[in-house]
TrEMBL record:
Cited function: Catalyzes a mechanistically unusual reaction, the ATP-dependent insertion of CO2 between the N7 and N8 nitrogen atoms of 7,8-diaminopelargonic acid (DAPA, also called 7,8-diammoniononanoate) to form a ureido ring.
Protein name as annotated: ATP-dependent dethiobiotin synthetase BioD
Active site as annotated: 38
Provenance organism: Nocardioides humi
Compartment(s) where it occurs, according to its Swiss-Prot or TrEMBL record: Cytoplasm
Pathway annotation: Cofactor biosynthesis; biotin biosynthesis; biotin from 7,8-diaminononanoate: step 1/2
Source organism phylogeny: Bacteria, Bacillati, Actinomycetota, Actinomycetes, Propionibacteriales
Domain of life: Bacteria
Residues noted as binding Mg(2+) in the record, renumbered to the chain: 17, 53, 111
């Protein structure tokens, strides 16, 4: 039975890709065959193109990755596709492709784009829809679990953003599995310290991991060695 993990963020820039790499590295260290799937990547065709998230994950975690669609401008996928004049896969097509990949791996991690409700296709489909559709499809098929992990900030505003995200998941009967604080400062202030305690209290969701700020700059071998200790 394949373990499926869907990684979303409370916003863009919260450390979602590094958290995805950490999850992948920890699973790989435990002996699992791991695949990371990025349904849509944007920002690859600008004058200063973004590094594709799958490249970052593959370099840090040393696992297999696949990117299902790519768009030039660093915008929400539906906007970027419309401006570029191209068709991108629907959420339904993404779910079908992810399900085809499952039998070859022990763990499949799906990384979203931006926050939970960023539109991933021209029909209004979002990562919330992917999480919901995968959850119910796999329950009906073989009972495989889908874990949704929410990556959040450490500082001010995180309680509101994280509670909104977990509430949206529960509204479609998807219970979030846990939170990951995406970038924990070297010298946390009172806000960060209180938030680390308050996040599970206000959301009812445990903090699974706290990732040090700058972890993405570690050498790959150091990242892989350190990642398991960030969980638990």
């Amino acid at each position: 039975m394949t373990r499926v993990v869907v990684v979303t963020g409370t916003d863009t820039g919260v450390g979602k890709t590094i958290a995805t790499a950490a999850l992948a590295a920890a699973a790989s260290a435990a002996g699992d065959r791991v695949l990371v799937v990025k349904p849509v990547q944007t920002g690859i065709g600008s004058p200063d193109p973004d590094t594709p998230d799958v490249d970052t994950v593959r370099a840090l975690a040393g696992v297999e990755t696949v990117q299902l669609a790519a768009l030039d401008e660093p915008l929400a996928p539906d906007t970027a596709a419309r401006r570029q004049g191209v068709r991108i896969p629907t959420v339904r097509e993404h779910v079908a492709r992810i399900r085809e990949l499952l039998p070859s791996y022990d763990v499949v991690i799906v990384e979203g784009a931006g926050g939970l409700l960023v539109r991933l296709d021209a029909e209004g489909g979002t990562l919330l829809d992917i999480a919901r559709d995968l959850t119910f499809a796999l329950i009906r098929a073989d009972g495989s679990p889908v874990e949704v992990v929410v990556v959040c900030r450490a500082g001010l505003g995180t309680l509101n953003h994280t509670e909104l995200t977990t509430t949206a998941l529960r509204a479609v009967q998807v219970e979030p599995a846990g939170l990951v604080i995406g970038a924990w400062p070297v010298e946390p202030g009172v806000a960060e310290t209180c938030n680390r305690t308050d996040l599970p209290r206000v959301t009812g969701v445990p903090v699974l991991a706290v990732i040090p700020d700058g972890a993405g700059s570690l050498a790959p071998e150091d990242f892989r060695a350190a990642a398991p200790a960030w969980f638990g």
